[in-house]
Amino acid sequence: MLNHFMANKISIVALAILATLLGGCAAKAANVKPTDPHPSVVKPAAPPASSLRPFSEVIKEAKASPGFFSLWRQDEKVWIEIKPEQFDQPFFLTVGVTQGVGERGLYGNMMNRSHVVAFKKIGNYVQLIARNSDFTAKANTPIAQAVRQSFTDSLLATSSVVSAPHPERKSVLVDANLLLLLQDIPMMATSLEAAYRQPYYFDAKNTSFDTLRNSDDATGFNVSAHYALARLILPPMMPPNVPPPPSMPLPGTLEDVRSLFMGFYYGFAKLPETMHPRLADDRIGHFVTTHFDFSDDYKPEPQVRYINRWRLEKEDPAAELSEPVQPIIFWLDSNIPYKYHNSVKEGILEWNQAFERIGFKDAIQVRYQIDNSEFDTAGIRHASVRWFLGTDARFAIGPRQVDPRSGEILDADIGVSDVWTRSPRRRVVEELPRPLISNKRDDLLCDVANEMSSELTFAMDLLEARGDLEPDSPEAEAFVQATLKDVITHEVGHTLGLRHNFRASTIYTLEQMANPEFTKQHGLTGSVMDYNGLNVAARGSKQGEYVMSNLGPYDYWAIEYAYKPISQADEKTELQKIAARSAEPQLAYATDHEAGFGGAFEGVDPEVNRRDLGADPLAFYQHRLQLSRELWDRLQQKQLKPDESYEVLRRNFETALDQVKLAANLSAKYIGGLTSVRDHAGSPRAPLRPVDADKQRRALKLIETSIFSAESFKFQPEFMRRLSVNHFDGQVNPDYSYNNQILNMQRQVLDQIMQDGVAARLIDAENKLDNPQQALKLSELYDTLQLSIWSELRKGGDIGNLRRNLQREHLRRVANSLIRPSGGPADVRSLMRDNAKQLQQQIQGALTQPGLGKEASAHLRESLETLNEALKAPLQRSAV
């Protein structure tokens, strides 16, 4: 468990090693010899104490900026005044990105890392040390000494003392230029190299301070950091007719790829008195701060998990409803377009409903930053919502900065990409590239805006095709604004400490969600922390609210656990009472790792998904398939306006196909599915329950008839000839192969349902059922797939290209299980061998029937040869 916990930190060390290996250019730019074993942290030459200039002489022409750390500035030089009592005392360091590249994850207005740090003075050197607070033990004990000896702090930067002590204050001046401008503290050179595979280096000579910020409890530095390339790394020369190896593209947003500036905000802040921590409970989804407390070796594991939450205390503890001593204030950054202000504000303030229920009035407040504000929203004391731009960005993010001693949230900066609000409304005037990289760790990147963008695009395309909505109409604007409010409410939930909840979408029926009065009162699902599908009704059916407009019951419950005022004496008992409600249907909860990561990596529980809706997800997938076909049918009849680009047809076609792919992947989760809940002992529910066999068969039937059937993907030839491209994209081949699109989807479904993990769960399900005969057998799954995919062998007639492709994919998996056993359940190989023999006989019989085209005949003969060779393969036994 310790090794698992340390995985993220090890990856950071690996990146640092990589930065060192690539650091020759950076070392040269910073006047450090490339042979320096630690070029990432530059150790300046410190003057001897006897040569230090008087304090007053150093700053005689400098401008003072008093504050947490008093600053002195003279032109490009900046000095930090450090008092004797400020050395070796912990404070908080945050790093924010204020200027980015605008692509490939390198965006401006992003929160970066944070540390508890301290200044350590060694002679006339000053080190900025990141304290390791993850590993603890009771003070003044032998085990505390062992902890200190076992786990190390980290050095972030080094500077030098440049003045003698002040005559009265005894403080000294430290060179801030050496501390913050000579080191690549955010390791951005490594990030650039990872994005472009070019050896960008940190150019200290052209790095400088911009504005400085100071107050009694925080000191901030805005830095303009330059990164450069000495030369481009070109792909190797290849012999004639040999294709070059794949390479990462060069930056597409720069005037000159050899040079770029990144902006950073370094915030030094006073640490608050340690807040009383609240222990986490795995039945409710909160972000946690994990400590390894080695004080008590009787505990089976040393981990202690504190939930992340803001410090929120009643001004009047006796009042039923009281304002907080210090509210949670969100600042709307001055870069947010005015037309979105109200939706953003409403999304933030929606959470006050949950806080009022536990006795707080106006716990969350919203304020607006003006253009000439004296503070930067990147600073630690100003939680914010900020816009950012990128040519490939369609996401929002809700990160937090947390005091690692207690889990107290000290700052939060929500970032919202402009593109996701723009792209659903675009027609042919603009087409921005899709994201090239994605990070599914929801504590770093929340993908709700990207997923909601896909949902919104599909809904608006369908409603436009129906004639119910014009893209530039006030109704379309209201649709986007409502969706933005939902996204903001979701991201604010993250900044309050809440994780994703991907089971929440299952608590209401589709019939309930079709009632607008019901949805206005109860919402669409159990939580805004889900990636909820949009609620789009069939043509002519009753339409409820499209988008979640309020909090769900789970959200109230999660806020109660984190923020309800409870005395320390009663806390354990009261928290257990709150968490024990987990079996209530409306409080359904599961998070990211249970949902999986898409395709063959979907989770095992079919009730835990992104972008589903309703108590019966299979019914929702069937509904979405119907809506997709409706959109396809309408597109085939659509008459474009004169001079309108055909690209709009292709984009709308793919929008519907995206819904079909989603329904296919999530339906496949039912086969071999396992419902897993987080209840503790005393709950009426068992934590593990195989999915009902009837539901598994329903899912298998949906896949047969809607995903594997060629009839589901028949389009008018004239329509297929109109699926052209945006020619500004410069595509060499403008053709659109929907065959490949369909095959990739079918291949993904086969990967999911024919993997060893599904086979193992189907076999194990018999041990978890009171009546094993009720289980879906592995043999039934394999027989059903084979009969469905090779149905032409029984019916006779020709075999179309879509079906031939699918049959080849199925055959490849059958043959591989015989030739190269994977080490999975032994029943897989034995059942596949039986089915292969049956298929062998069926193909032999089909080859004698009339009506086969030449392509189909060749396909069957090749398939027969493949089966013959696979069945001859010797049994390969794994070594013991």
**What is the mean predicted local confidence, pLDDT?**
88
Number of strand elements = 22
The general outline is globular
Number of helices: 28
Q: Helical percent range?
A: 25-40%
Which ranges are low-confidence, i.e. pLDDT below 50, for 5 or more consecutive residues? Answer: 1-38, 426-443
% residues in beta strands: 15-25%
Distance between the termini: 28 Å
SS-derived structural category: alpha+beta
Q: Can you summarize the main beta sheet?
A: 7 strands, antiparallel
Rg over C-alpha atoms, rounded to the nearest angstrom: 31 Å
Strands of the largest sheet, in order across it? 8-6-5-4-12-11-10
List the helices and strands and how they pair.
Blueprint: H1 2-5, H2 7-21, H3 24-29, H4 55-58, E1 63-65, E2 71-74, E3 77-82, E4 91-99, E5 110-122, E6 125-130, E7 135-136, H5 142-150, E8 154-160, E9 172-175, H6 176-180, H7 188-196, E10 201-214, E11 218-228, E12 259-269, E13 288-293, E14 303-307, E15 328-332, H8 341-349, H9 352-357, E16 364-368, E17 383-388, E18 396-397, E19 400-403, E20 408-417, H10 419-422, H11 448-466, H12 474-495, H13 510-513, H14 516-522, H15 553-563, H16 571-579, H17 592-595, H18 617-637, H19 647-668, E21 674-676, E22 688-690, H20 693-707, H21 717-720, H22 738-753, H23 756-768, H24 778-789, H25 792-795, H26 801-819, H27 826-846, H28 854-872
Parallel strand pairs: 7-13, 15-16, 15-17, 17-20
Antiparallel strand pairs: 1-2, 2-3, 3-9, 4-5, 4-12, 5-6, 6-8, 10-11, 11-12, 13-14, 18-20, 19-20, 21-22
Description:
This protein has 880 residues and is of the alpha+beta class. It is 36% helix and 16% strand. It is built from 28 helices and 22 strands. A hairpin with a 2-residue loop joins β2 (71-74) and β3. The longest helix has 22 residues, at 474-495. It is globular and about 105 Å long. The model is unreliable at 1-38 and 426-443 (pLDDT under 50).
